[in-house]
Design brief:
Order of helices and strands: HHHHH
Distance between the termini: 39 Å
Radius of gyration: 14 Å
Shape: globular
Structural class: mainly alpha
Number of domains: 1
Helix content: 55-70%
């Protein structure tokens, strides 16, 4: 096993399991973003949500948005590409 890999703990609620793939993807995205493993852009793509929808999801779950230079660059690229 690679010494640089750190295990992560992700839990899926029975409610999300019953709701299907979209709910599972959103729950995983929230956890990965909340643990600073995924950027905002990566997490929202996993959740299959728009920027605004994912921001609302974060707010509903009381997860603060962390925003850094990588996020800014990705946002600028998306805007320039017309997304």
């Amino acid at each position: 096993m690679n010494q640089f890999l750190q295990p992560i703990n992700l839990q899926i609620s029975p409610n999300s399991l019953n709701q299907g793939e979209n709910a599972i993807r959103q729950e995983l995205a929230l956890q990965l973003y909340g643990q600073n493993i995924f950027t905002f852009s990566q997490a929202r793509h996993l959740a299959n949500l728009s920027v605004w929808e994912f921001q609302q999801l974060l707010s509903q779950h009381k997860i603060e948005r962390h925003y850094n230079e990588v996020d800014l660059i990705q946002d600028i690229e998306k805007i320039e590409a017309g997304f």
